[in-house]
What does this fold into?
Amino acid sequence: MTAADRPGRADRPGRLAALGGGPLLLPVSAETAAGGAPFAWPTVQHDGQTHVLAFTSEQAIATALPGESVRYVTVELAEVAANIPDDSWILAVDPGSPTAARIPAGELRDLPSCGTTVEVAGALRAAIVAEDADALMAALLRAEFTVPLSPAGDSAPEPARLSNPDFPWWCLPDEQGQPSVPVFTSPALMRRALGDTATVAATATSVQLFANWPDPGWQLAVNPGTPMAVSLPGSAVRGVSGWLDELRTGGPTGDAPDPARPDLSPPDPGPSDLSVPDPEAPLRMQVLIPHRYLHSYVSDGYDRIAGLVDRWYGPGRDTPRRLYARLGLLGPQSPFSSSDEWVPVIRWQPGPDTPSSWLDGGPQQHALVVPDGAGLHIVHQDGRDELLARYDAERRRWLPAQDGPAQPEPPPVE
It folds into this structure.
């Protein structure tokens, strides 16, 4: 902060960058510091506006509040941006010092260094307030977690991976005595809740955390002791893990492939009438989706497509291998593999604005917004085509399809 405010360098971007690179100290009561009271924002009124007091060092606290014994919690700028409850509030950093800064809450949320943390934390908080289970799960699936190491356990295995059978999970009882594993959406939140007794054992995505959950009798405690605290029973965590694994290995209703079982699916035919679109099938456009992005669509309501726009060839004419061969999608850096048993495909009816080259030419690289009514399909290697969800543009959500294989849509009425 001092460097950012020297003569000739007192530019606002530099000041904000300096703030984002280090911790902030927020004054709290002695009870809160000892864990006996919930966190309360340290606010003062100035010129009719609410200011949140924050400091960059203990020396800055001593300068602003001389002679006072001040307890504090350590946070990151992104945490303040994500959790400050009112956009009209102002963050006052090091008030009374030459490096003082006043930053409106709305400006904090727009800082690039705070973007991902604010987005995930804001979605998590909104889902908790609304008691929306679907939105909560979507927020959790987007998060990356800091997993603390139990201070009573042995040192973490090297490298500290959750899949390691010796990983030292930290299980603590909650207020009701339920065994819980604490995880946090940032290291600073972990330090605030657990203090210096906790050390980071691993950083894990939600998929890694859910897939390696150690005990269905343990609940998942996300950000305990913070305004974004939420708990999930272990059975729910295992259920999400099974759902994700089902999507990765066998599609929404299929079984995971058994490596010991021979492949009895029919081989892909050579050149035949399957290599051209069925003239009786309604015209549809489609784009293949890498498997790892599937949960972003079904859980997060993702509404963008980028890839090779291709014509749908008709019922039963596409399989993963045929699609990969026709579109030239296999290679060292490809997200697809010739061994894939299924592949996600977004398919939609062309409209009046559809380029004629899409309709009459070959596959073309393009990016677009998901059209209203588009279907998210799972195309299997045995030729099955299952409709997983349909996109509702007004609600900006993918709505689950009815059980059973998808049927071709009737051609539009002229």
User: Anything to note?
Assistant: Residues 130-249 form a domain with the Trna Endonuclease; Chain: A, domain 1 fold (CATH 3.40.1350). The chain has three domains: 3-110, 130-249, 273-400. The two ends are 67 Å apart (CA to CA).
